[in-house]
Structures are given as structure tokens and as C-alpha cells.
Amino acid sequence: MPSQLLPPGIEVFERGWFSSNNIFNFGEADVSIVDTGYCAHQNLTVDLVKLSIKNHHLLGLNKVVNTHLHSDHCGGNAALIEEFHCDVFIPNGEDKAVKNWDMDLLSYKNLGQDCPQFMYQGLLIPGQEILLGRYQWEILASPGHDQHSIVLYQNEYQLLISADALWEKGIGVIFPEPRGEICFEEASNTLDLIEGRQIKLVIPGHGKPFSDVGSAISTARSRLDYFAANPKRNARHTAKVLLKYKLLDWRTQELDKVSQWISCTPVFFALARRLDMQLPEFIDWLPKVLVESGVAKLENNHLINVF
User: Fold this and answer.
1) Where are the transmembrane segments (predicted)?
2) 152 and 32 Cβ atoms separated by less than 8 Å
3) Torsion angle defined by CA atoms of residues 32, 36, 39 and 43, in that order, rounded to the nearest 10 degrees
4) CA 44, CA 189: separation in Å to the nearest integer?
């Protein structure tokens, strides 16, 4: 099993697609967690950390590290700060947005998601190292899925915390930036960076840890090339992922309220334009295409999640 390749002092809380994985690191000098899941699961995040602290006879949690600030990776920050009074480290470049809690710079308003406000104490600067538990990790810039995202590399054990830059069967959605550009080239460069490292085990943002890095990179490149060849494919995929994610939160929702949420979520305006649709047409189309994909169903004028 790939997880057996984890050295002492590292545990992975595999969370699924609604909340990102949490990587718990513990040693004599530091107890920290990388990424904290979505706010709807924040109580579970706290409970998982408290259980590991108890099991390993630790004094508490002193540090939260966020690979990027999408809501499924930092939605548990505020709850952990309240429980443990820990410090938070965020990617360099996000300091102004967090300090001012600027909803235009942060992704939550644009993507129609929630994240309780938190403050940070430190920045993750590419090229520098950070202590997580017992080990030093190199901070590497990994733009593409998010322009400020970082990944973390542990040289001694050849471990990579890849966030959403690389999964076993793909990569995270390449969202359009506020000015409309789509960062396919940046995502490809990040795969080049990962490919250039000696890696025995990848701990992804979603899904189980894996060791077949070459196959994962090949799959990620194939998907990236598919979307880059026709940006409309990426727009359709992005729209479906965003509604599916919201439906994971709702579980079931009246179709009128689904339509209202779509109409109030700014990213969908750009996606509709890229698909050459007027917004009313797009609002009608999106729930239907989710049903056609088999990941939702319509019953009694409700959109219902299908797992």
C-alpha cells in the first residue's frame, strides 16, 4: 500500500471531493496540518486533529499550512484557530486579500462558495523551506489550478504534497482568472516541475496517496491537452464541477434556488460567454447537463445529488 511509504510522524486524513485531504505532521518541535477542508465539515476536521493529538500524546496544534486558498482547502482554518490558537501560513501573494478579507481577490464570491474569515501569521515563499512535524519541506510554486498555489516537497523521503496540481487520475479544474485568461501553460509548467523531482509518494489534495507518479503525470497531461485544445471543453467541465460541488453541500435543492445561485455566481457569467450562451440559456442548460452526466437527478422540481 502506498500509504505504508509514509515516514513516522505523518498521517493523511483522506476526506473525499467535498473537503480536501488533511496532512497531519507531528514531532517534538512542531505539530501542524496541511489544508483543512470545507467549512461544512469543519467540526469533523477539529475532531480528527483532536483524536490524533490524543493518540500521540501531543500538547496541541501549533500551525496550519494552506497549499492554496480555495474554500475546500482552508474552510476549517477558523475552527482550528478557535480550538487550538494556532498560527496560519498562506501562500505568498494572498496576504493582502486575507488581511482585508477582500471577496473580489479571494475566490469565494466568484465561485459561489463559503469560507469563514481567518487571519494569517506567516507566508509560504517558494524557494524557502518550512518545518512540518519532524521534517523540513521545500516550498514550490505551482500555478495553474490557482495562481498562488504551492506544493511541498520532502527531499529525504521523496514525498510530494501536491494539492490540486496532480491527482492520481488528473488535476484540479483550471479556473478562468478574473481577467478571463485560463492558465493551461502554467499548469503544464507545474507538471514539468513535479516531473523533475525524485518522488516515491504523492499525497494529493483529493484521493488516496499514490506512488505511480509517471502514470499520474501522463494522465494529467492528457487531460490538460484535451481541455487546452478546445477551451469550450474546459468551460463545460468547470461549470459542471462547480454545480456538482455545490450540490454536494446542498444534497438536494429546489430547481428555482439552483437557478438563483447560478445567476448570482460571477464565474458563470464568464463561462456562459465562453460557451456562446446567454445567461438564461446557460441557467437552463447546466442542471440538465449534470443530470445527463449521471451525477445528479431531477425529482419533483428538485436537483438531487447522486454519489
Assistant:
1) none
2) no
3) -50
4) 35
Q: Where are the domains of the chain?
A: 2-229, 235-305
Radius of gyration of the chain (CA): 19
CATH of segment(s) 2-229: 3.60.15.10
The whole model's pTM is what?
0.95
Q: Would you tell me how many other CB atoms lie within 10 Å of the CB of residue 178?
A: 14
Neighbours of 180 (CB within 10 A): 9
As a whole number, mean pLDDT of residues 132-137 equals 98
C-alpha cell at 48: 480528527
134-147 residues labelled b (16+ CB within 10 A) or e (exposed): bbebbbbbbbbbbb
Q: What are the backbone angles phi and psi of residue 151, rounded to the nearest 5°?
A: -120, 165
- Provide the β-strand partners of residue 26: 31
Contacts for 279 with CB less than 8 Å, ≥ 6 apart: 263, 268, 269, 272
Backbone torsions φ then ψ of 45, nearest 5 degrees:
-60, -45
Comparing CA positions, the residue from 149, 140, 155 lying closest to residue 171 is 149
Angle between helices 231-250 and 279-292 (to 10 degrees): 70
Q: Residue 1: its pLDDT value, please? A: 46
Q: Are 172 and 205 in contact (CB under 8 A)?
A: yes
